[in-house]
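User: Reviewer 2 asked us to show a designed sequence for the structure in our supplementary figure. I'm pasting the structure tokens here. Could you produce the per-position amino acids so we can include them in the response letter?
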């Protein structure tokens, strides 16, 4: 499938996204755990790896529209990922899935709306804003850049690449911040100087989405 402003993606694309994400988390499990050991419970890598492995098992043979796949994935993560990440990513995917509705495919503008719905869900549930040293520091800029790119007529793969780059910049910007939310906030100033694991895993998820869409070309 060649991608342009009118191109659409479907359930297969979303499923490949989760396959890519599961692979990322399996490969980066120890790194994420190392990041989390500095300011959290040292279980983020294990939790995300376990959750996305369970997600692939749940979605094996799935037959339905992409919106339903996303809501199913969200519910699975809530029940299999420990800590705050399960509810947060579960909410994000369910909100995104509901925004897509029951259509068999979606385009860049619909994806932008879905990502905005995901971000809104995370902000609402976690009560976090950019600058609080959370996943929102990566997800917020990524969603904003993706919407701006799509509105400017940028092809979806390039827009996702720009979004991922924005997420990486947001992730790196968490290092000098003092955590305001979650387990890391209990450390106060001792949380300064460490990269947020939630922002890091957000980059892994967005990079997986970028690759899954690029593979449609």
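Assistant: Here is a per-position design you can include in the supplement:
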């Amino acid at each position: 499938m060649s991608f342009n402003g009118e191109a659409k993606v479907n359930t297969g694309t979303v499923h490949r996204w989760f396959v890519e994400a599961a692979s990322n988390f399996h490969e980066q499990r120890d790194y994420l755990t190392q990041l989390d050991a500095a300011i959290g419970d040292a279980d983020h890598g294990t939790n995300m790896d376990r959750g996305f492995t369970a997600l692939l098992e749940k979605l094996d043979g799935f037959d339905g529209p992409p919106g339903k796949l996303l809501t199913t994935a969200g519910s699975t993560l809530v029940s299999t990922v420990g800590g705050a990440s399960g509810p947060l990513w579960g909410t994000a995917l369910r909100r995104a899935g509901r925004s897509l509705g029951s259509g068999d495919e979606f385009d860049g503008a619909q994806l932008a709306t879905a990502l905005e719905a995901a971000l809104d869900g995370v902000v609402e549930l976690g009560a976090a804003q950019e600058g609080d040293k959370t996943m929102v520091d990566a997800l917020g800029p990524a969603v904003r850049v993706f919407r701006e790119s799509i509105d400017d007529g940028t092809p979806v793969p390039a827009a996702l690449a720009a979004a991922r780059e924005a997420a990486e910049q947001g992730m790196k910007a968490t290092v000098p911040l003092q955590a305001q939310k979650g387990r890391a906030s209990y450390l106060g100033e001792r949380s300064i100087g460490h990269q947020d694991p939630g922002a890091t895993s957000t980059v892994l998820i967005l990079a997986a989405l970028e690759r899954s869409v690029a593979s449609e070309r």
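For the response letter, you might also mention the following. Strands lie at 9-10, 105-106. The CA atoms of residues 74 and 89 lie 7 Å apart.
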